[in-house]
């Protein structure tokens, strides 16, 4: 074991995460890899964007995670008429005390489901920028902390869909990871047809970990050991995106840090106190793809996403893996 984390802590963390994984499997059928990536993002203390077609279980996934933890949960349905104050809260004048008081918005929760985030206007989308970066909301010059842990679990339909507003690069950069659900296998979908209902909030799941457990897991992930050769491997991947002609611009320093943090979290999710190269390679797409754009013009967002992912895969394949 490394000098950073004791074996007993790793065992307890793995047990807690396995309880979470098992609980989510009750409602999320046949998507073990997606569940692992969601847990990785949670343990890393990051925000998650699920981008896929409507009706494949994005909201159910978020709700299952939230209900599996003893944390405050809120859901915001993003629409074109939603205002920034509807998300963050507003200052209201109280006649009884002759003062303005701050009425907290739904963003004041531990897990915030931002459902169909790209259906809101850019002005409303920007209301999440500060809170996703600093875990606070500033209204009339006064900062209000939203508490810890804090995770924005956003869903969005493909940007080619009518009535959507693409998230700006600054907003995309706030998400640690972007994932896709995809359709379930036939056997899993048959199981869903037998047991599931249309209403996600009819899901009956009991919490299996506490808010304190989440904070301990996030603190422990920061102590997971990353060997120098693995750090160099991360740097080479990031540097390669900056010289890749296919990309408009390479990954930022923040992107490299995000890849390291996510790899530490994945190691912990898999019961290790050290990062292995596989932790990095498995997360290159989910962590970096949404931060990169093609140098060439394309009108199809799905095509661009596939091209970016394919180029990242080629970069990883071309680099020697640390031994």
The strand count comes to: 11
Assigned CATH class of the largest domain:
Alpha Beta
* CATH architectural name of the largest domain: 3-Layer(aba) Sandwich
Domain module tally: 2
CATH H level of the largest domain: which superfamily? P-loop containing nucleotide triphosphate hydrolases
Question: Which properties best describe this structure?
Answer:
323 residues; alpha/beta; Rossmann fold; Helicase, Ruva Protein, domain 3; 2 domains; 5-stranded parallel sheet; two-stranded parallel sheet; 13 helices; 11 strands
Please give a structural write-up.
- With 323 residues, this protein is an alpha/beta fold.
- The chain folds into two domains: 28-210, 3-Layer(aba) Sandwich (Rossmann fold), CATH 3.40.50; 224-323, Helicase, Ruva Protein, domain 3, CATH 1.10.8.
- Helices cover 45% and strands 15% of the residues.
- It contains 13 helices and eleven strands.
- It has helices spanning 7-25, 32-44, 58-67, 84-88, 122-125, 129-134, 169-172, 186-195, 211-221, 228-242, 253-269, 277-288, 301-318; strands spanning 48-51, 69-70, 73-77, 89-94, 99-104, 111-115, 136-139, 142-145, 151-156, 177-179, 209-210.
- The strands form four sheets. It has a five-stranded parallel β-sheet with strand order 3-6-9-1-10. A two-stranded parallel ribbon has the order 2-11. The chain has a two-stranded antiparallel sheet with strand order 4-5.
- A hairpin with a 2-residue loop joins strand 7 and strand 8 (142-145).
- Helix 11 (253-269) packs across helix 12 and helix 12 (277-288) runs antiparallel to helix 13 (301-318).
- The two termini are 18 Å apart.
- The model has no long low-confidence stretch (mean pLDDT 90).
